[in-house]
Amino acid sequence: MAATAQLFEEPFDADEYIERLAWRTPGGGSKGGAEAFDPKRLLEEFKNHIEELKQLDERIQRRVEKLEQQCNREAKEFARKVQDLQRSNQIKEAADIIQKLHLIAQELPFDRFSDVKAKIASKYHDLERQLIQEFTAAQRRGDIKRMQEVAAVLLHFKGYAHCVDVYIKQCQEGAYGRSDVFEDTALLCQRVNKQVGEVFCSPETVMAKLIQSIFENKLQSHVKDKLEETRRSDSEQYLKNLFDLYTRTTTLATKLTEFNLGSDKHTFLSKLIKNIFSSYLESYIDVEREHLRARSAMILQRYYDSKNHQKRPLGTGSIQELKERIRQRTNLPLGPSIDTHGETFLSQEVVVNLLQETRHAFERCHRLSDPSDLPKNAFSIFLLLVEHLCVDHIDYALEIGLSAIPSPDAKNANLYFLDVVQQANTIFHLFDKQFNDHLMPLISSSPKLTECLHKKKEVIEQMEVKLDTGIDRTLNCMIGQMKHILSTEQKKTDFKPEDENNVMIQYTNACSKVCAYVSKQVERVRKSMDGKNVDTVLTELGVRFHRLIHEHLQQFSYSSMGGMLAICDVAEYRRCAKDFRVPLVLQLFDTLHALCNLLVVAPDNLKQVCSGEQLTNLDRNLLHAFVQLRADYRSSRLGRHFS
């Protein structure tokens, strides 16, 4: 029979226990049985069972000792808690008493009760210091309940504010382990916000004081360190840091508004931000303008250096300048034009860089300017963009381009001004896009809007005048080149051949070369311009082209076969005029083609032809002038038929 603790449960009878043990042992029964009584076997069983009982006793004894130890520990812990509660109440009672005594002592006359007042004050300060020490210890071990109790007692003491200060200081210990002070601050405030409501009776005041402490110490120190190291040495990095720090600070402040900080938390946080950044924001726009000016000048200078170009001074008032101005506005040959070797001195890369620098400036201006100063500051940045992009780059390129336009009588002139026009148009679009996307939102609701629109209009109109001047002079050069082709390629015998019977009826070589040149120039105009400008310029070119051909044809005398050749030439010119896609130009060449019919029509049919749909509205002198170009005008007395 195995020895277990259950065998000794009450009521326990030792004799009965031994009897049962003997009865269960084979050969140990006292009343006989299946087996004869065996005393040795029974003795052996008793010895084994005694050993089991000893082992059971040891196990039970160890368990008893363990339970006794546990009971002692719990008794001590219970006693400690009782003592803590008693001590806590004694502190509370002592605090209540000393607080009342301190108030009463304020009313006692000093000369009679100076000793009493001093003792009360000493006891008041001692107890206050003990309470703060107790609160500090409880905070370090994370005992929220004890912190709450001590804070409630200290609430009526002068040292309550000091208790809050200690709490705020300890909260920040070890809270800034990362490299991101803003993220650390947000996490710290989230953690503390959950705790202050359990510890203090006015958690919003404590949270506000914590945030104020963080802003006035940790953040202000961080901002100062970041900005002061670049403020004098690297304006670009300084502005980037200022923008980043101010943005992150305001973003943090927005996150902090989710906490209860009192009735006017937005004003409270705004003042904290202003205290950190006011000295930097006051001078911000001056630093921004100076940086943008220097940066833009550097971008431009780097470009001109890459072209190995020394910028020409414009508007100096010199004799050369005067001659250049006169040459630009007239067709007078006042000396050779400047050879730019096809360089437009316009760079889209430069423009993109200037616009990018200005866009960054607008973004910083929007963030860092006081709302009342924003339109004024944005306008000052816009003026710098006008100065460097529009004046120093585009206007300079237009001046150089105008100077490079050859005179109308130049031979084989390269007309690069159309390339200037093309690039200038592209730049205008980029300039206008930035004006609308980045400047307009900053000034749209202020009086500066009118001033900005006026300035933009003024700048564009000034450049359009130069573009128009350049285009006009370029068209003159084109006409001059056509005139040169006609004067060198067109022979008098083309329209009055010596052998009328041996003439191929086709357009002349001069006509072929002029049409090839015109087609090329029409294509260049289309590539260089957009919108209505294409039709406007092509209309002007087409009218001048027609005038040139009209005047050119009036220089010759035409035989019958020569008149047919002239008609063929004009037909080819008319085909070329279709490329203009301008109805007026095509109409002019249709009329010219009809006029050329007067060179070959039979004398008796002149009146009928002149009364036709295309010629009936023309001046009679013009019709007569064309009839006079016929070789047979005098011999056939065509004047009589015409009249």
UniProtKB/TrEMBL annotation:
Residues 39-90 form the Exocyst complex component Sec10 N-terminal domain. GO terms for cellular component: exocyst. Residues 93-641 form the Exocyst complex component Sec10-like alpha-helical bundle domain. Pfam families: Sec10_HB, Sec10_N. Keywords: Coiled coil, Exocytosis, Transport. One of its GO terms (biological process) is Golgi to plasma membrane transport. Residues 43-88 form a coiled coil. PANTHER family: EXOCYST COMPLEX COMPONENT 5, SEC10. Belongs to the SEC10 family. This is Exocyst complex component 5. It comes from Scleropages formosus. The gene is EXOC5.
